[in-house]
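Open question from group meeting: does this chain pack into something compact, or does most of it stay loose? Before anyone orders reagents, we agreed to write out a predicted structure and look at it together. Recording both the input and the output here so the notebook holds the full record.
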Amino acid sequence: MNIDEKRCLTAYLIWAFGIAWVLQIAAGICFQAGNPMAYTGLLALSMFAPLVAVVLSKFGLKRIGWKPRIKGNIRWILFAWFAPAVLGTLGAALYFLLVPKALDTELSYLYNVLGSEGIRQLENSGLSVSMYVVISCISALTFAPWLNLFFAVGEEAGWRGAMYPILKSRFGVLKGRILGGILWGIWHWPIMILAGYEYGSSYWGAPITGPLLFCLITVAMGILLDWLYDKTHCIWVPALCHGAINAFAGVPTIFLNPSYRNQLLLGPLMIGLVGGLPMLAFSAWICTREGKE
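Structure tokens returned:
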């Protein structure tokens, strides 16, 4: 890492964390004040902080692989699109296999979330709760990843496009990715602590164990996303994968017994220790495979 890269990285981190943390703190305040629309909007806006940081740190947008590279990358695009759902399904299945009482096929959690008013609105539109579940799952597998891509690229341009290359250049590929994943996880901490983002606020060891576990998950996800960027040299591919992860993220909770809602540290989501095992295992496989090449 030369002096220019070090200065660029320092400036990038200051801007990426500074902008995002201000927005996340504001979002957390809105969440606690019972303003979900402002909370969601500010949280979505914070996803573009890394991209803004790239510009303000003078990293150079042209150094990022913005050009869509479809030819020769179809298999990687398809992988980015569907792999998160496969890994997430395997993780959820493993969790429900180990904790069978957590599985609720009667969809009690969803009924609680929708409430009587939400269910009435569904029925008035000609939809049953079961149909709503089917539509939610189909959307998570089809168009939702592509819609999420345009938000996810705000992060991917900063993390995988700008920060990871510098860290890998300085510390080596594996150590650089691990450090990058930890920084990416810490970047989420304000909203996790203030609003119970990802794990809620009633889990064991809250609010410490959740943010720490999340760093392990972001290391694994970061390895997968950076691997895709290295394979394609196109930032839109890891952005699609990131969007697919976000699209599928909440699907397993549809089948979660509400009494196990405070055990998300384990599963069934990909951010859980058990639910995330397939993602962790696949990321470990990437590291092992690349170590042999």
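Observations to bring back to the group:
The chain has a mean pLDDT of 93.
The longest helix spans residues 3-32.
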